[in-house]
Known about the structure:
This protein is an alpha+beta fold. It folds into 3 domains: 1-219, 2-Layer Sandwich (Alpha-Beta Plaits); 220-272, 5' to 3' exonuclease, C-terminal subdomain (DNA polymerase, domain 1); 289-461, DNA polymerase, Y-family, little finger domain (Dna Ligase, domain 1). The protein is built from 18 helices and 13 strands. Helix 14 (302-323) packs across helix 18.
Amino acid sequence: MRDMRRESPHTASKAPVGPEGGSAREAVGADVAAFTERGALPLPPWEGPAILLVDLDAFFASVEQLDHPAWRGKPVIVGGDPDKRGVVSTASYEARPYGVRSAMPSSTAYRLCPHAIWTRGRFDRYREMSNAIMDILRVETPYVQQVSIDEAFLDVSPTPVNREHPVRVAQRVQQRIEEMGVTCSIGVGTSKTIAKIASDMDKPRGLTVVYPGGERDFLAPLPVRTMSGIGAAAEEKLRSCGIRTLGELADADEGMLLRVFGKNGHVMHVRANGGDDAPVAQDDSVKSVSNEMTFAVDLTEREEVEGAIATIAAKVGRRLRRKGLRGRTISLRVRYDDRSVRSVQRQLATPSDDEFAYTPLLYRMMDELWRPGMPVRLIGVGMTGFEDGEGVQESLFDLAEAAPSEDDVRPSIPDARKRRGLIEATDLVKDKFGESAVRFGRELRGEENTTGSASKNPADYK
């Protein structure tokens, strides 16, 4: 465990120090339970908000090693096919010394570590493990915000009723997760920004604590890219202003930051100074529901394109129904072989969660973006415009408008009642037996042309 009151991030990686100056790895290390029972190191009192960021270590790869004992201690890469534009989703810690990292093209990872064990993602298994771990976190506090399949914020601020020290909570969480067969790293701080950065400081099995009042010293020497929300473009602008570290950002003139970055300049300045009042939201309001698919081989034929649209639209419809949402705005996004992107959206007459109704509209929208023979690398479908209290809408628009013309070879659309019955039946089967239990022929064709990359978006596992 790192106590950031006593050491800078530079010395922390060399000699982790506990609250009383002893080696936290000696006291905590792999035996958190023994340390907690002994109570060997009294912890300084914690006043004010306390946020944890729990980050599961190499989660997908760790689950694979858990389920395949022969893979333990060996480099494991979970990701898409090296010869099909795949991307590394997760690399085990045994693969990382070779330079393999998440989000790296699979072809690059294969060159760096050709002897690694490669596997595509098993979505149902990762969802099962993630849900079980999130249940552990919700036992500790009702204030849990899951931000990805392998990350979540917890608000464990001491209250007059519950005075348990946040570090003790973090230690117990680590122990309970490790009992499940995987590990996590945890950052503890007074804000989401601090907790997130701290969680990345010591992996795997790290516990980095930034006590109240130590935020500025903790952040000051770190490069600006360390902070979430500062990407390559923002970093370049900051460098042009002579700002390379978060300490320099904290000392910068806020007026200048506002001129360069607008309102984001204020947010960056506050966070660089250790402030951040963003709450741990239990249920963030859903702004959009979407899905996209990247193809191993570019699509050029109408049948291929429409099959992909239908598959993606069905996933969006299922997510809408699981969330109890119906949207008014449908959007279509296309990335071409030259990586350029175009999109189009349409307002619906009434809200819908029925892919059978809005898919023909997506076909017509595609005609605005694409002509047969144009290579398509990616297609995405999204729904927005949600309203509370919307009733179930069985018909999106007049069936006469949706129905194919006489010379149209696309499948006809069943009437509203039959559509609803088919949707409910397939949803029930998938709920009981998994997403792959019922699939249409178009989905099977499209599955062969995906990259095999696994997402960390929780919605992709529902």
